[in-house]
């Protein structure tokens, strides 16, 4: 598919082309109706995100039908990816730089690295989030979850977005360097109730 077809103008052009197809061809008519329904679903998702103060832009991605980027202050940048024109779902996801894994495991042994990454993978699986690139030397880690159009409401969509956000925070916190160790001995000046830093 030509990459320009996934721009906003391309999407409108596809709609216009679908509406000019002859009605006597049942296959074409069904395909056109399906295409219009998918476009309406994508427009609705964009409206939901905009309503929640996200700035939404459509970006070119030759590997997908439509890719939207959603960002707002003090939050991740999310990607909403419709993989191909006939797909009945989108992927809600985000990407984090892979260097954090290398930095977190710079001094770890091979066994410690395997255990640490296994813990991260199990943690993400427990959050019902899929992932790619969770390994040493990866350029980026991608977290994503499918959102199917059938029965999709704003609440369900935003819940999937929250799951991806929580997974991103879990990964960031797990990979964050420990700045300073807490001394867990009681602080006598605080009546023994607080800990000395």
Please provide the count of β strands. 6
**Structural class determined from secondary elements:** alpha+beta
Number of domains: 1
Please state the overall shape, judged from the principal axes of the Cα atoms.
elongated
What's the mean pLDDT score? Answer: 80
Strand line-up in the sheet with most strands: 1-2-3-4-6-5
Question: What is the CATH topology assignment?
Answer: Yope Regulator, Chain: A
CA(first)-CA(last) distance: 59 Å
Measured by DSSP, the beta-strand proportion falls in 15-25%
Structure description:
This protein is α+β, with helices and mostly antiparallel strands and 197 residues long. The chain has a single domain (3-176), classed as Yope Regulator, Chain: A (2-Layer Sandwich), CATH 3.30.1460. The chain has 5 helices and 6 strands. It has helices at 8-19, 26-51, 99-104, 110-126, 154-175; strands at 55-59, 66-71, 78-82, 89-97, 130-132, 140-148. A 6-stranded antiparallel beta sheet has the order 1-2-3-4-6-5. Strand 5 and strand 6 (140-148) form a beta hairpin. The longest helix is centred in the N-terminal third of the chain and has 26 residues, at 26-51.
Describe how the helices and strands are arranged.
Elements: H1 8-19, H2 26-51, E1 55-59, E2 66-71, E3 78-82, E4 89-97, H3 99-104, H4 110-126, E5 130-132, E6 140-148, H5 154-175
Antiparallel strand pairs: 1-2, 2-3, 3-4, 4-6, 5-6
Helix pairs in contact: 1-2
């Amino acid at each position: 598919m030509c990459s320009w077809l996934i721009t906003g103008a391309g999407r409108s052009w596809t709609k216009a082309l679908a509406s000019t197809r002859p009605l006597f061809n049942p296959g074409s008519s069904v395909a056109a109706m399906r295409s219009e329904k998918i476009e309406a679903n994508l427009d609705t998702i964009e409206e939901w995100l905009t309503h929640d103060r996200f700035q939404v832009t459509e970006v070119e991605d030759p590997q997908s039908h439509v890719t939207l980027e959603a960002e707002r202050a003090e939050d991740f940048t999310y990607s909403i990816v419709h993989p191909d024109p006939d797909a009945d779902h989108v992927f809600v996801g985000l990407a984090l730089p892979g260097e954090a894994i290398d930095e977190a495991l710079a001094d770890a042994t091979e066994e410690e690295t395997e255990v640490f990454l296994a813990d991260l993978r199990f943690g993400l699986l427990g959050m019902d989030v899929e992932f790619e690139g969770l390994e040493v030397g990866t350029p980026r880690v991608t977290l994503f979850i499918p959102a199917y159009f059938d029965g999709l409401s704003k609440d369900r969509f935003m819940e999937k977005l929250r799951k991806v956000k929580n997974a991103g925070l879990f990964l960031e916190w797990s990979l964050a360097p420990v700045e300073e160790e807490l001394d867990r001995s009681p602080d006598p000046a605080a009546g023994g109730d607080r800990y000395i830093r």
